[in-house]
Amino acid sequence: MGVRRVVKGVGDFLVETVGETIAEAILTLLACALLGALALIAYLSWSFSPPLTLAGAALLSLALAHGARSTFRGPAKGRGRRGLAAVTSFAFLLTAATAVFLLFYATGCDCL
């Protein structure tokens, strides 16, 4: 009876380890693909029009700064987030989540 329990425990451990390894490889591959796509977009944008690329980056930075301010400052008393504040907060949180994803997974790939 003890041998069966040990074999079952070792089998469960191996299945979990292989599953985590495969999931880690998939996430790393996705992060490298995302990083490559972002680099390609930046390259193509810059080759098309450098001033327009800088203007777009400035506008995006302004929107993300507004989103960060409205996220960390919180809504006014008695009011929830509305309109532009809700959109920029969502964009800021999505960008932050993407940056964290890239930080943890893309730094582990050999594409950097």
The major beta sheet can be summarized as:
none
The end-to-end distance, rounded to whole angstroms, is 51 Å
Form type = flat
Overall mean pLDDT: 82
Query: Uncertain runs with pLDDT below 50, 5 residues or more?
Result: none
Q: What is the number of E strands?
A: 0
- Going by helix content, strand content and strand pairing, the class is mainly alpha
The H-and-E topology, N to C, reads as HHH
Radius of gyration: 22 Å
Quickly count the helices.
Answer: 3
In percent terms, what proportion of residues is strand?
under 5%
Description:
It is a single chain. Helix 1 crosses helix 2 (about 50-75) and helix 2 crosses helix 3 (about 85-105). Helices cover about 85% and strands about 0% of the residues. With about 110 residues, it is mainly α.
What is the strand and helix layout of this fold?
Blueprint: H1 2-48, H2 50-73, H3 84-105
Helix pairs in contact: 1-2, 2-3
